[in-house]
Every structure is written in structure tokens, then in C-alpha cells.
Amino acid sequence: MSNSFKLACIQLSVTADKTVNLLKTKSKILEASRNGAKVIVLPECFNSPYGTQYFAEYAENISQGESAKTLSEAAKEAKAFVVGGSIPEREDSSGKLFNTCLVYDTEGNLIAKHRKVHLFDINIPGKIKFQESETLSPGNSLTQFETDYGKIGIGICYDMRFPEMAMIAARKGCIAMIYPGAFNLTTGPLHWELLQRARAVDNQFFVATCSPARDMSAAYHAWGHSTIVDPSGQILATTEHEEAIIYANI
């Protein structure tokens, strides 16, 4: 295993046009690769607006979906591991919808699939109400994948609130935990950075989060602030809420 590698988190500006999102996704992956990134992370719901009213419309099956094809092609062209944020996935056998992260290796092969285990249901009177469980089903397994640099664990957004997932990943030898996520303007200022630093310190590994950029004209307002934290809880890289790519040497 190599001693170090460059990690990139792409804080993508997501539109209602899936084709536009996918074209930009591939372009940004290749940009990160040109800047030396070997593991490249996308945000939660990078191919569609985030919202229960959108999941069914934008959902794809993995084997034939255009989003999976784009990720595979981009990973192979970039010669990088790509952690594909998440997409709304439709399971062929059951018709159920999941919030799913796909991971591809440097040859464009699908090497991991994580379905969000903890669905985001929240009701803070006067601030925000959101229920993923209205349309999504939860995943039922934990996910780690092997790279040339070590093993990495995956969670999606609300999964980060549950320390057991990161703890198990650390016990299984992971060097990092990656969370594509879309905290909002209520929960983001409260806990986004705090949770990342806690997971990193508790487990003595790196933690990275990748959010969509904020769009105040959309139905859901993402906090942004994609961040990379080292095992001592120090922030290696972060940004505000606009579209950006952040980098850190791991």
C-alpha cells in the first residue's frame, strides 16, 4: 500500500436537469484527477434535487442507469477511485427506492454499494420537516471497500450520527470514513463539523464529508461546508456553501 494519497470532495451545484448534472459530474471528476486526486468523492443526491418528491422521478436501477454508467466511465478515465455520492436507486425485484452510494475502482468496476441505513426523518417546529421514509427504504448492511491505499468505510449523511458505523469500520481496519451528505441550514451549523471531528477522534482515522452546493431557489437548502478531518480532529480542508472542490493529503 502507498503511504499517502490525495482525496478530493466535489461540492457540486445540482440542478433539476439530470443530464446537466451528469455532464458536470464527469467534468469535475476529471478536473480533480488532473489536480492529483486518487480518491474522488461526490455529494449526496448528485444527479437529482434532494427531496422526497423527486426520488421516484429520478430513480434508476444500477445495471442500466445512466448515472452508474457516467461514474464508471469517469473513474476509468480519471484512473481514480470514485465514491459516487448517492443517487435514488430503484430495486428491480421489489420496486423499492433506496438512497445509494456506488463506488468504482480505477478501471471503472463497481466495487461497493451502500444503501443509506438511517433514513432522515426530522420535525423541528417552525424550522424544518422532512421524512425520507415517506418514499425510501433503509439499507441493512455496512459497507467498506479496498483501495491501493487502504480500506475505506462509507456512510450517507444521517448515518454519521450513529457512532457504531464508524467504530465498526475502524475495527475492520479502515483508514477513513467517507460520508456524502446534505445537512440543512438548521442541523448543519449545529452538528455537521462536530460529528465529523468526533468520529475522527473516537476512531483515530480520517473523516471526509461531501455536500451539494447550496441553492436557495431549491426546495431543500443544503448546508454545504464539505470537509476533510484528520485523526486528531483537525480540519485539513473545508469550504463555504458555493460549488467547489476541496483537497487533502491522506
Automatic annotation (TrEMBL):
> What are the GO BP annotations of this UniProt entry?
asparagine metabolic process; glutamine metabolic process; oxaloacetate metabolic process
Q: Does the keyword Hydrolase apply?
A: yes
The protein's organism comes out as: Rhizophagus irregularis
A GO CC term? mitochondrion
The UniProt keywords, alphabetically, are: Hydrolase
The keyword Hydrolase belongs to this UniProt entry's keyword annotation: yes
Family per UniProt?
Belongs to the carbon-nitrogen hydrolase superfamily. NIT1/NIT2 family.
The protein's GO terms of the molecular function aspect are: omega-amidase activity
User: Which named protein is this?
Assistant: Carbon-nitrogen hydrolase
Q: Which domain of life is it from?
A: Eukaryota
Supply the PROSITE patterns for this chain.
CN_HYDROLASE (PS50263), UPF0012 (PS01227)
Which parts of the sequence belong to the CN hydrolase domain?
Answer: 5-250
Q: Extract the Pfam families matched here.
A: CN_hydrolase (PF00795)
Database matches in CDD domains: nit
